């Protein structure tokens, strides 16, 4: 017998507990520990997505380069930045923005698309979240490598400040888990969440300083207010600024710090309420 | 006797289960399931009769009661059959026992690893090779890479797929696909086995082989729960049975007796068209 399974006794029943945050936390820990499962399925899905195409994974690079290239071409002169610097700015910002957005849109579908799994096997729900994040992480890493090459070609020099984007990315990655859990359960219960987020993400692309530079618009009213209110502005600030050789605004770090705590609490509350009910909603 | 319907036994959770290893156990205590209502909401006044529908105090449809007051207790070595007509709650009960659905009322206590073959195609990727699917399916069922590798040779041999295992499943005939999923599903030793109908696959000669393997697979299980419509399968594999009717236990006891009662009732219903409307 090759299979060694520890004998565990579990009791399930909801007649007493309708809100169980511990169950939610246990789900995330269990889910994370089953790395081989979600990694295998993430790799498989990535392969599947590009399987029938001639150039395969290269599509990630090509579509990224087309975007950055045309933005640089069309909008390069809109900014006060030197054209080279603007291109570097867009390259880095677009890569991280794409990753953050993917987590929201995938997050809304994360449990709904795993309907068959959830209704036929008792696996931790979070494995679907980790699988989805692993998938968008792969795309991000590919884009980031291309972005670095673009930056080097443009003559951008990296200072030790750039290392600050590593903790920034780790914080954003942790947030991705909370966000996918929250939106996953919410969208499984209310389809409207999905449609609402679809319409919001389009706006976010313009209200987040990806194509325009935040400092240049510090004095104008509405745009400033919108961008300051937008958490993505701060997420981009803590990640992108160090890579472009500037110290990130401490205010952005503070805002992201508080947001992480809020996201964590919200995710635990939402999962605590939803965990036992998810199979009924799908 | 595997099923303890005695109130006091069912209600008190066993204290010593976590301690010394006593093998698998599955204890259902007054389990109830209500599916939340979806879609256009009907008013109570428009519908009469079916007591499976749960209404709010304002007369709106709240949900559909799929199971009510299900209690039994299974220990190592028990073999339970579940019979009942379509819509009686068999699949829902299996989903509860497998840990997929959480009881809305009552509770379920499980000791041991549950293998549920409710959907043996879960985790199967048509674009991936046969070998890759052995890995994926094994991982989906909760086994480690090491455990899967230990079973690979045996799965290869039993499925008779040979070099086809290096090709994507899309290149398989449907019979070959079934042979593969069957071979994977029956490769691992189950502790608590939950089966929605018997599994089989392939042509006549493979079927013969499959029946033998399936029997062996089922016999290894510490506890078996089998939902089936086949009298023969139940007689061969189960010693006790539950007859589900509209989400409640209508009868329980020795398999033979329960199946007889169920079949007698089925015949009667067939003769009486008036009650047929109740079948979902």
Automatic annotation (TrEMBL), chain B:
GO terms for molecular function: ABC-type transporter activity; ATP binding; ATP hydrolysis activity. The keyword ATP-binding applies. One of its GO terms (cellular component) is membrane. Pfam families: ABC_tran. Keywords: ATP-binding, Nucleotide-binding, Transport. Coiled coil: none annotated. This is ABC transporter-like protein. It comes from Hyphomonas johnsonii MHS-2.
């Amino acid at each position: 017998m090759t299979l060694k399974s520890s004998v565990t006794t579990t009791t399930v029943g909801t007649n007493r507990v309708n809100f169980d945050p511990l169950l939610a936390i246990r789900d995330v820990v269990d889910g994370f520990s089953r790395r081989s499962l979600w990694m295998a399925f993430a790799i498989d899905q990535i392969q599947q997505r590009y399987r029938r195409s001639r150039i395969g994974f290269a599509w990630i690079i090509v579509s990224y380069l087309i975007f950055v290239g045309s933005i640089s071409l069309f909008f390069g002169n809109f900014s006060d930045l030197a054209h080279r610097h603007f291109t570097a700015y867009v390259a880095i910002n677009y890569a991280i923005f794409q990753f953050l957005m993917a987590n929201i849109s995938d997050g809304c579908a994360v449990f709904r698309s795993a309907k068959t799994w959830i209704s036929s096997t008792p696996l931790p729900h979070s494995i679907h979240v980790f699988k989805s994040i692993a998938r968008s992480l792969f795309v991000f890493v590919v884009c980031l490598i291309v972005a670095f090459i673009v930056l080097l070609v443009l003559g951008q020099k990296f200072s030790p400040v750039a290392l600050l984007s590593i903790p920034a990315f780790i914080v954003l990655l942790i947030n991705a888990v909370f966000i996918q859990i929250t939106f996953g359960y919410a969208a499984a219960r209310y389809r409207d969440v999905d449609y609402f987020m679809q319409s919001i993400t389009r706006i976010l692309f313009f209200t987040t300083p990806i194509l325009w530079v935040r400092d240049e618009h510090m004095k104008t009213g509405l745009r400033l207010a919108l961008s300051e209110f937008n958490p993505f502005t701060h997420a981009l600030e803590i990640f992108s600024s160090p890579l472009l050789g500037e110290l990130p605004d401490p205010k952005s770090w503070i805002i992201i710090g508080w947001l992480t705590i809020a996201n964590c609490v919200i995710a635990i509350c939402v999962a605590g309420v939803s965990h036992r009910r998810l199979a009924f909603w799908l | 006797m595997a099923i303890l319907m005695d109130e006091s036994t069912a209600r008190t959770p066993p204290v010593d289960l976590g301690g010394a290893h006593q093998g698998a156990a599955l204890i259902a205590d007054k389990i109830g399931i209500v599916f939340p209502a979806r879609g256009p909401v009907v008013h109570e006044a428009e519908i009469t009769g079916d007591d499976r529908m749960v209404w709010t105090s304002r007369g709106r449809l709240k949900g559909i009661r799929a199971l009510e007051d299900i209690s039994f207790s299974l220990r190592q070595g028990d073999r339970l059959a579940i019979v009942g007509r379509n819509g009686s709650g068999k699949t829902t009960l299996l989903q509860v026992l497998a840990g997929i659905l959480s009881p809305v009322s009552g509770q379920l206590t499980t000791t041991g690893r549950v293998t549920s073959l409710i959907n043996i195609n879960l985790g199967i990727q048509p674009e991936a090779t046969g070998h890759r699917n052995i890995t994926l399916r094994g991982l989906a069922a909760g086994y480690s890479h090491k455990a899967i590798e230990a079973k690979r040779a045996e799965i290869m041999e039993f499925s008779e797929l040979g070099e086809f295992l290096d090709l994507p499943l899309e290149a398989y005939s449907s019979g070959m696909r079934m042979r593969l999923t069957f071979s994977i599903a029956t490769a691992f030793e189950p502790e608590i086995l939950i089966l929605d109908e018997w599994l089989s696959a392939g042509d006549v000669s493979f079927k013969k082989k499959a029946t033998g393997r399936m029997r062996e697979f089922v016999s290894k299980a510490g506890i078996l729960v089998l939902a089936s419509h086949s009298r023969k399968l139940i007689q061969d594999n189960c010693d006790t049975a539950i007859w589900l009717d509209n989400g409640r236990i209508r009868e329980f006891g020795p398999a033979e007796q329960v199946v007889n009662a169920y079949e007698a009732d089925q015949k009667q219903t067939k003769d009486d068209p008036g009650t047929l409307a109740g079948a979902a």
